[in-house]
Amino acid sequence: MFEEVSPQFTFADREKATLDFWREHHIFQKSMELHKADPPFVFLEGPPFANAPPGVHHVLARIMKDAVCRYKTMTGHYVHRKAGWDTHGLPVEYQVEKQLNITNKAELEAYGVQNFIEKCKENVFQYEQEWRLMTERIGFWVNLDDAYITLSNDYIESVWWVLRQAWDKELLYQGHKVQPYCCRCGTTLATHEVALGYKTVEDPSIYVQFPIKNKENTYLLVWTTTPWTLPSNVAIAVGEDYDYVCVEHEGQNLILAAELLPKMFAEEQPRVTTRYKGHELLGWHYEPLFDFAETAQSGARGTVPHALASASERAYSIVAADFVTLEDGTGLVHIAPAFGQDDYDIGQKYGLPLVQLVAPDGTFVTEVAPWAGEFVKDADSGIIENLAGRGLLLKADEYTHEYPFCWRCDTPLLYYARESWFIRTTAIREQMLQHNQQINWYPEHIKEGRFGNWLENNVDWGLSRERYWGTPLPVWTCNTCGNQHCIGSIAEMKEHGQMAADASVAQGPGTRNVPIPDDIELHRPYVDDVILTCKKCGGTMQRVQDVIDCWFDSGCAHTAQWHYPFENQDMLTQAYPADFISEAIDQTRGWFYSLLATGTLLYDKPAYKNCLCLELIMAADGQKMSKSRGNTVDPWTILNEQGADAMRWYMFTACPPWAQRAFKLEGIDEALKKFMGTLHNVYSFFVMYANIEGSSVQSVTQGPAPHELSLMDKWLLSRLHTTIDTVRTEMESYHLTNASRAIEAFIADLSNWYVRRSRDRFWGAESGPDKRAAYATLYEVLVTAAKLSAPFVPFLADELYRNLVGSLDDEAPVSVHLALYPVADETLKDAQLEADMAFVREVISMGHAARNRSGIKTRQPLSELTIGGLSEGQQATVTYLAELVHAELNVKSISFTKDMNAFAQVTLKPNFKVLGPKYGKNVQAIAKTLATADATSLKAELDATGSLQVGTFTLTPEEIDVQTQHREGFFVEADAQKFVALATEVTHELKLEGLARELVNKIQNLRKTADFNVADRIQLSLTATSLVHEAFEAHQDYILRETLTTEVVESPRENAFSRVESLNGEEATLSVLRV
RNA sequence: GGGCUUAUAGCUCAGACGGUUAGAGCGCGCGCCUGAUAAGCGCGAGGUCUCUGGUUCGACUCCAGAUAAGCCCA
């Protein structure tokens, strides 16, 4: 016996029971142990941040990973599922700063780095519990108790080892990076922070004249909105292909872009004296506007961070740059490498000096004598006056534009070159591109599109962050000789280092230093106290202050999750590269890149083979989900109400995971009703009747006996095995949506066709081979469907499986997740039968339409259905499956006709697909002729002669499409090829039969209203018109059998359940009583 | 500003290779069927396949441009 399926339930509650079962019986662990010896399938978990509660997009990512891992497990792979946590980085620092009301570095240092770091550690796992609960509740099987954590010493040590590899390959170097910088907070800002603080402001807009060397009275006209960067100017850029002119203006010669001349001199156009192409200007030298840089170079050390170290030949000359536009300005762009990334890059390209005359606090250095100590933006007016006084200013206006301000303190940001550490990824670019070719991307366009482009345009990875909470950059610099060294392990650090007794003092290896403890915490500020002895000069080395980009942390996951190479040497060879990763598309430049970059750097192999790229989830209104819009969805409301399976199924089937999805709760309800409801109904139908049948269906576990199968059974099994094939194929190529949709289509067929047409085989029929076959088939199909859907709806699938299999078979695995995935049995597939069934269903569907049009209800039998337009083969198919047509349409006989005209209108059209290539242009002429001629006689000619003469062309039947449309006034339904027509005459006999079916229907309804059990036998009495009695007499056996009536009495007993009904207009009083 | 993606019914989505009646589900209205139902079946309404050009005998499909939305980068 199976466990009864209660009609009162919610999926969400059932899922909790299943979770308990999994927990109690350690099903996840068992599923791993079961496949320990199988070939591994390597899954690499992208570590989430647990400092915010999980949202629906996290659910999406986790269930996609889960379905793939479950599928691979069930198909015989060992899938190690190590969880991970990302823990470092600015977001954490910001949250803690906010919490502590800290607004800048000075306040932070005053609070104490040590205290701050401890707060960060707490903050990172603020929502870990919630993540755990969510992960478990949605059925994501991952080992959270053996997670890799990027803040652990082991992890950091591995990351250090990776950095050391880069160092040894000379791929780790120090340079400069221009970054948005708040000089009040003393902090660079991340892009998203910059975006927070844009304001519309008025800035100076000035046109400055740079005197050309060796050309009397000739000037380069340059436009800028940041006068304060002019003292740091080192070059002027032009567009090589642009046209430039020299014009005479108020006694001076000015050079600017030809195209901008009208804009520049709105009123009177000056006279053009000479024309140049941009490239002709390259290499021209000009006089710097100020000489502060020269002073700074020879001045006191340290006051100018990066003065003119060696004035290159190129300094103060004209260079080419492709970012020069002709939209604004003069087509001549002032270049100050310290204050713009574009400028910096140009500086690197041409070997220009880096002139930096602004101190980190945003004021001019002492060498800029007139404005020393003044905030640079405040100095703008002074600079303008100065230039005007020297006759170097053509024009000064105000300019309204968007400028970024610090979102915390409202100070205007400066783009400012900071010392920075880089990974020379450009050196491994070609390898990365090659490795990218070996990765299967889903969707495919990522490979050449977004990701490929990103790699093509690769620049060196800016690795360092001037922050606190992160993996410390393990580079130490000698205070004495400047020698640098990268540490690659704790052991190495211990061997060569000590803990400084007073870290604030750069001191020699003195007596007060102590050895590094075994359990040294690798974070700042602890590691900052470590001093090394310089191998070159014996001096003291101190660690550079920076921490590294947290993307580098997670990018090392393939290696650092194992604490490789310090432990688990064997794991790396087994688990690299990963077979499968999946994250959202915003990881293209994030984790997808960082994994590939580190993997290429270390092993010269791609880090992963298959990458399932998820799109972001939009709110129901199509807008981005955000707290401020109030359109976010809390996964828990869904998990508690509709349940995890419904949410999962919705996400698998609604649209491909790489398509943008508007997240709709109605969609989840639909998944619940349409798929889960349907599957559950078939299941409960089976359980209900199987339990009534009792022991006679115990044999179902042996599977259906082939010789006993009906056509419907064979069809269903064929559909099942075709579906298995489809699902496997789609899953192998990570098309989870196609796979799950195939299952959904199968379940729809199972319920709406197989069960619908086979009900009486389960109910009421005598025991025998056919009944046994029906039970065995449905049982087999349900169990297989449970396995097939297990990766997608693990809860429902397991519930079905456990009841269906667990109740009968003690030998079988206790959970569907310990079973093997179904394999298609080719011998059970019958493509012809499937096609035939589809065709007959189409005919039946048209019959339904015709009946509908006639207004005669289906319970009323009709004598004949005429079908036209079928080929011989199609006729044979209908005849073969005629039983279904009879049953569905309630007609006594089926006939075929060739006479289209009686029922349908015929039109002839060329078969474009065949004739198009053959006759080209003439196809349209043929179509016209066929359309205008009398179709009926053409059809007659075609039928008689086997061909048709159209103009000069002779057409064969294959070259012509005969199309039909139903004629109005007939109970006929037609599609392009065929039609069905219904004989609507109701004879006396048919009328009686119709009444008999009415009686059955009403009695059944009465039983239901009276709340009888399905198997209860009844006593029946009937008082009605003579016609109804005649029908009752004529079909008594049928009526009694269908309604389980064992006794018919003249007048009802007192306690009988009675009702007056109208049967096709005939009145009848029906009474039923349980016996 | 650059790169990538998307645009088909009120909503969510299918539509290999270009072939002439563009489909499904949901929703809506009407009818039917039903002792499996959180069902099912049928009919109806609902589409200038975002727009404009081009290639072609023929374009939802290929090409170019535009518009809108989204993501990433600047």
Topology:
Elements: H1 11-25, H2 27-34, H3 56-74, E1 82-85, H4 90-100, H5 105-111, H6 113-124, H7 128-137, E2 143-149, H8 153-168, E3 172-182, E4 187-188, H9 191-196, E5 198-211, E6 218-224, E7 235-238, E8 243-249, E9 252-257, H10 261-264, E10 271-277, H11 278-281, H12 292-298, E11 317-320, E12 333-335, H13 341-350, H14 376-389, E13 393-404, E14 414-423, H15 429-438, E15 440-442, H16 445-448, H17 450-456, E16 461-462, E17 464-465, E18 475-478, E19 484-486, H18 490-496, E20 497-499, E21 514-515, E22 530-533, E23 540-543, E24 547-548, H19 550-555, H20 557-560, H21 569-575, E25 578-584, H22 591-603, E26 608-614, E27 617-618, H23 635-641, H24 644-653, E28 661-662, H25 665-693, H26 711-732, H27 736-762, H28 769-789, H29 794-804, H30 831-854, E29 862-868, H31 872-880, H32 882-889, E30 891-897, E31 904-910, H33 912-919, H34 922-932, H35 935-945, E32 948-950, E33 953-955, E34 960-966, E35 972-974, E36 979-982, H36 988-1009, E37 1018-1024, H37 1026-1034, H38 1036-1043, E38 1045-1048, E39 1057-1063, E40 1066-1074
Parallel strand pairs: 1-2, 6-9, 7-11, 15-26, 25-26, 27-28, 29-30, 37-38
Antiparallel strand pairs: 3-4, 3-14, 5-6, 5-13, 7-12, 8-9, 8-10, 14-16, 17-24, 18-19, 18-23, 20-21, 20-22, 22-23, 29-36, 31-34, 32-33, 35-36, 37-40, 39-40
Helix pairs in contact: 1-29, 4-6, 15-17, 24-25, 24-27, 25-27, 25-28, 26-27, 26-28, 26-30, 27-28, 28-29, 30-32, 36-37, 36-38
The chain binds one RNA strand of 74 nucleotides through helix 17, strand 28, helix 25, helix 27 and helix 30.
